[in-house]
Amino acid sequence: MSKETIIALHAEHQGRWKNREEIAEHMIALIGQLYREKNIVTSVFGRSLVNPSVLQILKAHRRTRVMDVELSVVHTFPILEALAKVEQIGSAEVDLGKLAVEFKHQGGDINAFVADAVKSLAGNPATVEPKDVVLYGFGRIGRILARLIIGQSGLGRGLNLKAIVVRRSSDGDLEKRASLLRRDSIHGPFAGTISVDEENEAIIANGNFIKVIYAASPAEVDYTAYGIHNALVIDNTGKWRDAEGLAEHLKCPGVARVVLTAPSKGEMKNVVYGVNHTDILDEDKIISAASCTTNAITPVLKVLDDKYKVLNGHVETVHSFTNDQNLIDNYHKADRRGRAATLNMVITETGAAKAVAKALPALKGKLTGNSVRVPTPNVSLAILNLTLEKEIDREEVNEYIRQISINSSLQGQIGYTNSTEVVSSDFIGSRTAGVFDAQATITSGTRLTAYVWYDNEVGYSCQVLRIAEQMCGVSYPKIPAETNA
Q: Is 462 a known active-site residue?
């Protein structure tokens, strides 16, 4: 290759990149305008574009193709421009990537195409009455939920974080709580500003006044005294895991419903959003969001069972250590967990495999499970060893899952990667319940071994938030409409 050719190629690629950067800059203004003024949430194949940077917009377009050409802002920007021109439009979630693919195949006038896509909303703007949310407990899941809710508050998304309930630990408790929300060793700094109102015992996050209520039990709290009414309490303490214990929240003035961020005991509904969330009824006051592992594996197991019929299997989870383990060897009531978490792989039990049946009854009694805790602080891996009713082809199952990850109602639950280089830290911050690793798939006759990565903090918290939105009646039509998995 000549020097002149290299120079020409460099100029060509640099010019193309600068052009796409410029387009992305224009997109930021339109995305923000639609979000603030019309409550339109834009995405690209499920990857949110709200509050983006230029690079985040460009990265959101990766690994998707439009008629054998990689999807880029060149395809989605005209869709966004046409969307901004629609005057009468209700709240919605609009997938620019999917619309770009549809338009590429359909052709015609882009303004007419977009107008037709949103006509079901025209003149009928959806309004959502903001719902009060209380976080009971403020550990890893509680703080991530706080970040997620704050990140979409004040923009018509329906959930208002009004209070956090914790035990008072020591002097300076409020500042320490705020500091833990402000800085996170795994997920990085909070996206915005946080201050402390010592006089009123509150945290101010991006302009949101969040009352910190100090209480040792639910019975001590009257939420109406803080202007909180018909609230959803998200209990992330794990202290109460049956209906009787969690019902203590419902006795508190101002509380209407409760979500547990752990697998339940007893007959309480365990919900994996995307799989059995339609089981939530108006009369349900207490719901369990199951566990992070159950949320990661159940959607993948569902679609595999739909197509290939799962006869039996074993689920082994390689799970990051958690706060209930010891940093150094010390007494622990559970077997093995007393040994130093950061120095050992620790075999422990998991109920995730059996819990799948609560959300997916077709697999009741068909799965066994176990877990190995490993010295990483976040992101876990589930290994599904399954016997299927029919023989399976590796390329076929990988393509099947890929299509579901971008073109089904489970795109928020099932992610997909085909990279040969990814490792656990690459999935920190992943908002899908689990990410199917196509490169690791193994097939042999009717045997399938599938690997599913999951951010056991953020991915799970996103699932909890989806349940919370449904229980609060916060839902928005999707454009284009979702297709079933």
A: no
* Cβ atoms of 384 and 301 closer than 8 Å: yes
- 41 by DSSP, 3-state: which? strand
- Residue in 252, 292, 462, 472 annotated catalytic: 292
Please report which helix (H) or strand (E) contains residue 19, including its range: helix 3-38
Along the chain (485 residues), what's the average pLDDT of each consecutive run of 10 residues? 72 80 91 85 85 86 64 90 83 88 87 85 58 96 95 71 93 94 96 94 95 94 96 94 94 96 89 94 94 97 97 96 92 91 93 90 95 97 97 96 91 93 95 97 98 98 95 83 62
CA distances (Å), origin 392, targets 395, 400, 438, 451:
9, 11, 14, 16
Tell me phi and psi for residue 454, to 5 degrees.
Answer: -155, 135
- Give domain limits for the chain: 3-117, 131-262, 292-456
Question: Is it true that domain 131-262 has CATH number 3.40.50.720?
Answer: yes
Cβ atoms of 231 and 162 within 8 Å: the answer is yes
CATH superfamily of 292-456: Dihydrodipicolinate Reductase; domain 2 (3.30.360.10)
pTM for this prediction: 0.90
Give, in order, the Cα–Cα distances in Å from 129 to each of 8, 41, 304, 449: 56, 17, 38, 45
